[in-house]
Amino acid sequence: MILQSYTTKSTHIPTQDNPTDQFRSDVLQGLQSTPKKLHSKYFYDKKGDALFQQIMAMPEYYLTNCEMDIFQNKTSALAGIILQTDEAFDLIELGAGDGTKSAFLLKYLLDQKADFNYMPIDISANILSVLQDKLKSDLPELNITCLEGEYFKMLEKAAALSSKRKVVLFLGSNIGNMEKDEALSFCRGLNSYLSPGDIVLMGFDLKKNPQVILDAYNDKAGITAAFNLNLLTRINSELNADFNVEKFEHYQTYDPLSGACRSYLISLENQRVNVDGQSVNFEKDELIAMELSQKYSLKESEELANSSGFETINHIMDSKAWFTDVAWLAV
Questions:
Q1: Do the Cβ atoms of 23 and 42 come closer than 8 Å?
Q2: For the purposes of burial, counting CB atoms within 10 Å of the CB of 315, is it exposed (0-12), middle (13-18) or buried (19 or more)?
Q3: Separation of CA 104 from chain center
């Protein structure tokens, strides 16, 4: 989908790579690996976006309310980190989604007459369309450039579009979707696209009562299960596959020592699935690793910053101290 530019203030730049080819390559590589795995970034087609909106509204899914608490009630503290100088900046949001949380910060910055351009990055053209429509209506004075594609490719485009200082938002505990070594590599990569003095605001879901965490990812209504299974439906639709979704079941785990919360799909029988003309065999009870949601301590978040070329300058907690948005300075 190509999004339309509504005014001179609103621009959309899609990735130039063929997303279907990348999707096919990643799916086949993942299903041919041992153990089998699928990338959680592909959950977000139109139906997946709608299911995730339902997940965020669930009473068990505390993450949304915790970070919303920060953006609604501690907006001035967030803005204070960004506005330590009156220098113009690009506010770049990685995985922007529908912008529900960041909209509070955007409005506050506009009220403060801050000189900035908002650059939301997302792999989902559908959700960028939703975001662009919403912001055009709610904050018509906002300068916005939507960037559709992978984080680092779009960061490179953002840097080419503007030489202003950068403030990067990486919210919603998206860093938790990476293994710890991948998170370190990601943060080092992020640092390489920034200049000294640039700022990152990154959301971390903190370690807490294990049952609270497990309930958030294993809801009784089965919405999270449907969210995971929908990726099989998307593969059927876009890659000419023949998954029988009823032959797979969602399974969730949480290890309070490591902080790793993992979701899987279990094959309920021996079966063969065809994906784009290639056969993939499943044994009964074989797993597909779907998503990691890593939980951190504050100390672990600071260690990650130090190891990837950042300095922790602040952390802002929700009222329950279950979640934090940490401010890092590129050094």
A1: yes
A2: middle
A3: 18
Half-sphere exposure for 32 (CA within 13 Å, toward CB):
10
What the block records as the tokens of 11 is 């621009």
pLDDT digits (tens, 9 = 90+) for 58-117: 999 999 899 999 999 999 999 999 999 889 999 999 999 888 899 999 999 999 999 999
Alpha-carbon span 15 to 177, nearest angstrom? 22
Pairing of β 199-205 and β 323-330: antiparallel
CA pair distance 199, 125, nearest whole angstrom: 26
**Total-model pTM:** 0.86
Cα 283 from chain centroid? 32
Whole-angstrom CA distances from 234 to 117, 217, 241, 242 are 34, 21, 9, 11
Torsion of CA 45, 47, 51, 53, to 10 degrees: 70
Cβ–Cβ under 8 Å, residues 265 and 278: no
Per-residue model confidence as pLDDT tens digits over 16-29: 457 789 999 999 99
Strand boundaries in 180-270, DSSP class E:
199-205, 248-255, 260-267
Per-residue pLDDT band at 14 (split at 50, 70, 90): low
Q: Which amino acid is at 281?
A: N
The candidate with the shortest Cα–Cα distance to 24, out of 277, 271, 246, is 277
Phi and psi of 237, rounded to 5°? -70, -40
